[in-house]
Design a protein that fits this description.
By secondary structure, the protein is an alpha+beta fold. It is built from three helices and three strands. Strands 2-1-3 form a three-stranded antiparallel sheet. Strand 1 and strand 2 form a beta hairpin. Helix 2 runs antiparallel to helix 3. It is globular.
Length: about 80
């Protein structure tokens, strides 16, 4: 089954392939495709995961971080 990620970066819609054995999350795949260094993001995400009381806080942190990078409308597609 093919897996893809569709997202918008700087008002341009993009579609990339996703391999679970290569990336831990779709956010890592997007960062690699766009050339982002997300090492600081990974550290902060770990801290948020440890101390957040609900999963919505983690999801909100991810969404806001990538929105600041210019990435929006992230969708995971299984074909």
């Amino acid at each position: 089954m093919a897996k893809k990620i569709q997202y918008t970066f700087n008002h341009q819609q993009k579609l990339i392939n996703f391999a679970q054995d290569k990336y831990n999350s779709m956010f890592e795949a997007i960062a690699a495709a766009e050339g982002f260094d997300i090492s600081d993001y990974s550290k902060m995400e770990h801290q948020v995961t440890l101390y957040a009381k609900d999963k919505a806080a983690i999801r909100n942190f991810r969404d806001e971080y990538f929105k600041k990078l210019g990435v929006t409308d992230i969708t995971f597609i299984k074909e």
